[in-house]
Amino acid sequence: MQAPTTQKNPAHKLDEETEKLQTRLCRLVGQAIADYCLIEDGDKVMVCLSGGKDSYGLLDILLVLQRRAPVRFDLVAVNLDQRQPGFPAHVLPEYLTSRGVPFHIESRDTYSIVKRLIPEGRTTCSLCSRLRRGHLYRVANELGATKIALGHHRDDIVETLFLNLFYTGKLKAIPPKLRSKDGRHLVIRPLAFVKEADLARYAELRAFPIIPCDLCGSQDYLNRKKVKAFLRKWEQEAPGCSDSIAAALANVAPSLLMDPRLFDFRSLDSTTENPLETNSWLDHETASTD
Q: Among 38, 44, 150, 50, which Cα is nearest to 96's?
């Protein structure tokens, strides 16, 4: 367990492109925090750091906001070392120490468990995620963290929406804030409004020491990768469609869907008035499906 007591400022002034991108990312993360009340005064936020571009970007932006925000909150970075062969265990401690960030490295051999239980070529993400989540929840308790911050970004959320549409028959994605099933933890996703492309560019500009995942990242035919390619092609053919899809997740009309748990269709008759959701869409030309 390492716990530096001071946070060092960046060693040099940011160049113009980096500063502009950082400003945009701070605005988007700040918007998500405000809209969904992700971080409150006195919080201790456990930032789950995998060594990928997304979690590096999340930590970096939260460090900036920590200095600027009107509320006081603490950060602690946590990495779960899953004992993958060749994992460079020195990279994260060296980086976090150089940034003056309190951190904890938890070593658990989930890699061997996943490789033993999942046949070669099959998707490992589900089991790997469950094992990792259990350890992270335990560490959050031990560290006294009030929030657990994950690095899922806007593209992850949109892709998950389509994964569920295509393969599970459910209309759901990834929420920006979620209480764990046992009720003991609040999981937050401050990057909910941030595009993956911006995080990739930011990681390049900031020269984060990226650590690739050789467990799930080596599987070329995951459904998520298929969905990602599908959405990328769709965006090329209809620029801006991903923005519209992301906006739709926060603009839901239950009475215009088909779930009787969300809208009381049974009690709807010719005398019912519903001032909140009208059928004004009938008065307008529907969007073309050509």
A: 50
Rounded (10°) angle between helices 110-117 and 125-143: 160
Cβ pair 92, 59 in contact under 8 A: no
Phi, psi of 184 (to 5 degrees): -100, -10
Structure tokens at 211: 């650590």
Domain 16-233: give its CATH superfamily: HUPs (3.40.50.620)
| Domain boundaries along the sequence of the chain | 16-233
Q: What's the pTM value of the predicted model, to 2 decimals?
A: 0.84
Q: How far apart are CA 39 and CA 26, in angstroms?
A: 14
What tens digit of pLDDT does each residue of 235-287 get?
A: 999 999 999 999 999 999 999 999 999 999 998 887 766 555 554 444 444 44
Length of the chain: 290
CA 156 – CA 174 distance, rounded (Å): 8
